[in-house]
Write a structure and sequence with these properties.
- The chain is of the alpha/beta class and 261 residues long.
- The protein has a single domain, classed as P-loop containing nucleotide triphosphate hydrolases (Rossmann fold, 3-Layer(aba) Sandwich).
- The chain is built from nine helices and ten strands.
- The strands form two sheets. The protein has a six-stranded mixed beta sheet with strand order 6-7-8-3-9-10, sandwiched between helices. A four-stranded antiparallel beta sheet has the order 2-1-4-5, covered by helices on one side.
- Helix 5 packs parallel to helix 6.
- The longest helix has 16 residues.
- It is globular, with a radius of gyration of 20 Å.
- The relative contact order is 0.16.
Length: 261
């Protein structure tokens, strides 16, 4: 893991009418690390991720990717940079098989527009193998027949198949059983081991403390702080989520107090 961020968000603010969803937020993630993004409902997690994914524009601030300021005006811009988001609903088609889902909208054709099925099957199998996904019986079985953990694996494999550099996972273990959760968490670890930058959004602090390198806490649309997993506790993170004073607000208050005295 390098100390240079792949994604570096500086002073990002976003409003929806009179609602301040994000206020002067800083956020970064480095290649080879799992950065957890936590906060209560309404903290701004989804809004921040949707700004990175190009779904929402932002009012002020800067997004730097791989050392260069970038403008992300839509999901295609994000995809060109190598940013992929796996949303909680996974966006998979139950009536299609694994290969068809992996290549949905990106099918490989020959010059007569006939599908190159063997090529797509080979690449799908290679991607799943590289992520050590071994529980799927056949890449030609319908997604409707897969378990929750297997579906999550397909969604993640679909995201990393297209030369992705940053993968954002939104509540990947929600509604999964113990065995399926273990399968997904191991997959998250492997993504980081392969050098990808991973953002993990989750309400489950047990999962976060198992796989995250660092933890960023959002509260009421502000970044409270960044915690290194090995140097903090779940209690400290819970306190930051529920009652922490945003770092920048605290700094302003201290400065004003110094001026007053």
């Amino acid at each position: 893991m390098t100390d240079t961020p792949l994604l570096d968000i500086r002073g990002l603010s976003k409003t929806f009418g009179s609602v301040e969803a994000l206020t002067d937020v800083d956020f970064e993630v480095r290649p080879g690390e799992v950065m957890a993004l936590v906060g209560d409902n309404g903290a701004g997690k989804s809004t921040l991720i949707k700004c990175v994914a190009g779904i929402h524009g932002y009012d002020s601030g800067e997004i730097v990717f791989d050392g260069e300021p970038v403008s992300i005006h839509g999901p295609k811009d994000a995809a060109r940079l190598g940013i992929e988001v796996v949303y909680q609903d996974l966006a998979l088609c139950d009536n299609l098989d694994v290969v068809q889902n992996m290549y949905l909208g990106r099918e490989v054709h020959d010059w007569l527009y006939r599908l190159k099925e063997p090529v797509m099957e080979q690449h799908t199998a290679e991607t799943l193998k590289s992520l050590a996904v071994t529980t799927i019986r056949s890449i030609r079985q319908p997604v409707a027949s897969l378990s929750g953990g297997q579906r999550q694996s397909v969604a993640v494999a679909k995201a990393v198949q297209w030369n992705s550099r940053l993968v954002i996972l939104d509540e990947p273990t929600a509604a999964l059983g113990v065995a399926q959760t273990r399968q997904v968490l191991e997959l998250v670890k492997r993504l980081a081991e392969q050098g990808l930058a991973v953002v993990l959004i989750s309400h489950n602090l047990h999962d976060i403390f198992e796989v995250a390198t660092r933890i960023t806490v959002l509260r009421l649309g502000r970044d409270v702080g960044v915690y290194e997993r090995e140097k903090t506790t779940q209690q400290e993170v819970v306190h930051a989520i529920t009652a922490g004073i945003p770092t920048k607000v605290a700094g302003i208050a201290e400065a004003e107090a110094g001026v007053a005295t």
